């Protein structure tokens, strides 16, 4: 078995960068989203300061219940935690000795704390994915404890076990993301037409999405088939005994993630998924190995030759079976015009039967694979470590981390049963009890991205307009990143996540009753609240706030390159059509608006929070003033690029 010391270090470095992206992106948006005058003030949901340890862990624990002891308000507490996350992750990103178990536990605790009060703007699958992946990263990272100077532990025998947990998380994420597209019974996924809508209906498309949207339908259908193959059967190859198959599965997953990065601004999500894919690699593939020469059966000439041939046969059989299954289940056919025909060649009932069998198989496969990793780690602890003390230390460490891995694997099975309710009976009650006790820490979650395709009849967008008279003229509010002006090119904003722009996409899929935060946004615009207005690209009323605001639903479509199409344009990126009223004309004194604001305590909130005049408070205010007028995406890019340059110098200079 190839060593994974370098693989582990690459994963830890990558995760440091993910945390850096996440904290930097969130920090720059706090005043407008969670400040005292923001859209969803965090002070309205944060708990009172903890009186003791027991009080701290009651309900939903967060470090924000401790920041009042530092003389900080809730907003300042969030800024303190997120900026602290930036500093810690930045140091870990540029310096290998800093990437320790304690450091990653601190990053996890910081992100978990702000997540607890994040409300709607932090309720995304990549946020809970980062919490789960972050906790596993802390288990994988070295302790790095030595008096007077840092000590970097290059390799631990139990690293194979903890890195396996990352691979298991990747499997659950990808497999679930694939099957939910079919279990949702969405007609576009079953008809293989989802990508004919996806590029223009996703939250924040990139310029590349416009070009891919122009591709012919047969290619879009084949792309959906490729997505199914990458997300459903290939993840089972993560646990294949043949190394070449694991590498094949790695590049398949990375290809999918890179294509998503090129066509959609999904913040740090795809980078985080690629980080999880690193668990499929080993030091030999990266280009470095702690152990040289042949190992295991390969060290014996005759047995080595036999095992190499067996691996070749298994590899070819797996790839051949995958190709045959793809052709059979999706009726791939090369037509006379050299296009590729495809259609789903199985029924919903047959797929339901597949799920009833595949989920239990996945559970057993995971259990056997984990048990094998633990046994191998115990064996290496005895045979490869030199000296009695080192053997005892390695063995005890492997036992401890194996128990932790077994517990994490057990509670993760509960989230896997969401895909097949019949498999719930396979788990003993103690597993559900353990999951229930740890659920509030989000150590494991269920996933399933893009389960239904929205915007089939046109991409819905909420357009806000303001005026000083009910008769008009009305002036439109433009956002930084979401579609508005049809002549504006789609942006490139990842790994930053403009969370207001994202929620505007969800708001367009529902009503104001489903999105009470939207009414809060309207009120902040009626008062020209500086922190909230800064989240928008333009303010059509820079000197005095508007007296009235209204919102209408529009349907957006990408323009076409076909001159015969009604959507053809040489200058515009979008075509839009006005639909229904989303929010009637409201003023700041509107009775229903006032009732809403009082109900959600946006106004008349008698907060007892008081900011101190300590040095820490002054530093936080200085940093906020320093970053107040910086473009949000540029801030994130600058932090990341600075870290990359310093990491390069730390590695090579």
Written description of the protein model:
Involved in the maturation of specific proteins in the endoplasmic reticulum. The structure is a single chain. By secondary structure, this protein is mainly alpha-helical. Among the domains are: 1-155 and 628-653, no CATH class; 459-611, no CATH class. The chain is built from 24 helices and six strands.
The profile of the biggest β sheet is: 4 strands, antiparallel
Give the DSSP E fraction (strand runs of 2 or more residues).
5-15%
What would you call the shape?
Answer: globular
Count the E strands. Answer: 6
Q: Note poorly predicted spans.
A: 289-293
Structural class: mainly alpha
Cα-atom radius of gyration = 27 Å
Percent of residues in helices comes to 40-55%
Helix count, DSSP H or I runs of 4 or more residues: 24
Mean pLDDT equals 92
N-to-C span: 32 Å
Order of helices and strands: HHHHHHHHHHHHHHHEEHHHEEHHHEEHHH
Task: Summarize the topology.
Elements: H1 5-27, H2 30-34, H3 53-56, H4 74-94, H5 101-116, H6 125-140, H7 159-183, H8 187-190, H9 195-201, H10 207-213, H11 217-231, H12 243-263, H13 269-277, H14 283-286, H15 301-329, E1 333-334, E2 340-341, H16 348-383, H17 388-416, H18 429-438, E3 459-467, E4 475-476, H19 499-507, H20 516-526, H21 530-533, E5 548-558, E6 574-586, H22 591-599, H23 615-627, H24 632-652
């Amino acid at each position: 078995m190839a060593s994974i010391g370098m693989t582990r270090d690459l994963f830890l470095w990558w995760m440091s960068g993910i945390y850096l992206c996440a904290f930097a992106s969130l920090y720059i948006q706090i005043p407008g989203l969670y400040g005292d005058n923001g859209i969803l003030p965090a002070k309205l949901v944060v708990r009172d300061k903890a009186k003791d340890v027991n009080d701290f862990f009651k309900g939903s624990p967060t470090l924000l219940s401790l920041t009042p002891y530092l003389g900080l308000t809730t907003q300042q507490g969030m800024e303190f935690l997120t900026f602290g996350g930036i500093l810690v992750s930045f140091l870990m990103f540029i310096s290998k000795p800093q990437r320790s178990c304690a450091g990653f536990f601190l990053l996890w605790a910081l992100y978990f704390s702000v997540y607890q009060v994040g409300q709607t703007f932090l309720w995304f699958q990549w946020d809970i994915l980062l919490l789960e992946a972050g906790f596993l990263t802390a288990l994988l990272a070295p302790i790095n404890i030595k008096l007077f100077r840092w000590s970097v532990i290059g390799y631990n025998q139990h690293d194979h076990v903890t890195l396996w947990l990352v691979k298991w998380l990747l499997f659950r994420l990808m497999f679930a993301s694939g099957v939910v597209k079919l279990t949702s019974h969405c007609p576009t996924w079953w008809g293989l037409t989802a990508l004919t809508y996806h590029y223009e209906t996703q939250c924040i498309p990139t310029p590349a999405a416009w070009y891919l949207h122009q591709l012919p339908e047969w290619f879009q259908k084949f792309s959906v088939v490729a997505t199914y193959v990458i997300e459903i059967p290939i993840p089972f190859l993560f646990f294949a005994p043949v190394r070449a198959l694991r590498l094949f599965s790695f590049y398949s997953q990375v290809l999918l993630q890179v294509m998503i990065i090129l066509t959609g601004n999904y913040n740090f999500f795809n980078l985080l998924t690629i980080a999880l894919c690193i668990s499929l690699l080993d030091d030999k593939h990266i280009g470095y190995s702690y152990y040289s020469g042949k190992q295991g059966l390969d060290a014996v000439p005759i047995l080595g030759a036999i095992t190499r041939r067996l691996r070749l046969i298994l590899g070819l059989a797996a790839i051949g079976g995958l190709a045959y299954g793809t052709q059979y289940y999706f009726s791939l056919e090369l037509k006379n015009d050299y296009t590729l025909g495809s259609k789903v060649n199985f029924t919903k009932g047959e797929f339901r039967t597949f799920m009833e069998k595949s989920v239990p198989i996945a559970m057993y496969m995971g259990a056997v694979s984990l048990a094998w990793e633990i046994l191998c780690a115990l064996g290496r602890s005895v045979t490869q470590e030199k000296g009695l003390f080192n053997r005892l230390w390695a063995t005890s460490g492997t036992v401890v981390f194996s128990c932790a891995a077994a517990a994490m694997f057990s509670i993760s099975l509960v989230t896997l049963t969401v895909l097949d309710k019949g498999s719930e009976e396979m788990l003993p009650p103690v597993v559900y009890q353990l999951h229930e006790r740890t659920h509030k820490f989000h150590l494991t979650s269920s996933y399933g991205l893009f389960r239904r395709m929205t915007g089939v009849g046109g991409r819905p967008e909420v357009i806000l307009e303001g005026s000083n008279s009910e008769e008009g003229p009305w002036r439109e509010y433009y956002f930084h990143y979401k579609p508005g002006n049809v002549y504006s090119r789609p942006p490139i904003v990842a790994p930053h996540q403009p969370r207001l722009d994202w929620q505007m996409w969800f708001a367009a899929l529902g009503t104001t009753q489903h999105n009470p935060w939207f009414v809060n946004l309207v009120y902040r615009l009626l008062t020209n609240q500086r922190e909230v207005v800064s989240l928008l690209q333009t303010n059509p009323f820079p000197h005095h706030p508007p007296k009235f605001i209204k919102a209408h639903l529009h349907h957006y479509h990408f323009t076409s390159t076909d001159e015969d199409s009604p959507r053809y344009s040489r200058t515009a990126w979008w075509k839009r059509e006005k639909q229904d009223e989303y929010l009637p004309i409201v003023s700041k004194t509107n009775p229903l608006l006032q009732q809403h604001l009082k109900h959600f305590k946006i106004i008349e909130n008698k907060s007892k929070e008081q900011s101190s005049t300590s040095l820490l408070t002054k530093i936080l205010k200085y940093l906020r003033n320093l970053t107040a007028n910086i473009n949000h995406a540029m801030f994130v890019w600058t932090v990341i690029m600075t870290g990359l340059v310093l990491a390069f110098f730390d590695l090579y200079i």
